[in-house]
Amino acid sequence: MSKPLRVLSLGAGVQSTTLFLMSCDGVLPKLDHAIFADTGWEPQEVYEHFEWLQERAADAGIPVHVVSAGNIREHSVEGFIGANQSKNQRYATMPLHVLNPDGSRGMVRRQCTREYKIEPIEKKISEIIGRKKGERWPTEPVVDQWFGISADELRRVRMPSQLWKRHIYPLVGLPEPMLERSMTRQGCIEWLRQNYADRHIPRSACIGCPYRDNKSWRWLRDNAPDEWADAVEVDRAIRNANKMDGQAFLHRDTVPLDQAKIDEDADQGQLFRDDDCLGYCGT
Fold it and tell me: Domain with 57 in it: what CATH number?
């Protein structure tokens, strides 16, 4: 059996950037590939940061691949307002917050991570290992898939059900230690400050991700007004979603985004919930 390929799921946020740069710098073993799944609705600062990472990848000799299942903003808005009803077009739902007619609250089932992140990345991995269409996946590990999950996010660690890969979490030392000690997100920030003091590392999340906390919404409003306006526009567009009794919102308080009290600090863990993106986005 040949040595499994090391493949990083690169979200271009703090943790996955740390892993990537540690690999480039020789702190961690050299990656064979890194894959960035583009939802088409990332903040501009994430795209600019990713371009810089591609430059570092070229210097280090690490191939970086960009995959996409389309633009999640366009697909979600079109799907929710029923514009494609006549085409019977399927779309992946974001985890929107819902205010039901009886006053209760809920969330739309999240499909976006799988369809815009997991599946495109696995399709690219299939191409990398030379798997032909319709061919069975290998029954032994041929890929070590790295994830940027830090020690303060252990709840997000998941072991794979597939036999063809292992999930590797270098920042927490699973399934075996790769660093001298585990690293939290703050530890990653400190490492980046020490080694890349001139770089601002963005938090990776779709512009209108319903898992954003108030601090993140404030940053968007105050630093990226065009993107904030875009999120407000999408929030209005999905209010009365197709085939939904309740009203849909981007903000957890189930109020219009431009009316939400985002200047309050009581965020109640809106971003990175236990059931969130599990290492494919947000890191």
Answer: 3.40.50.620
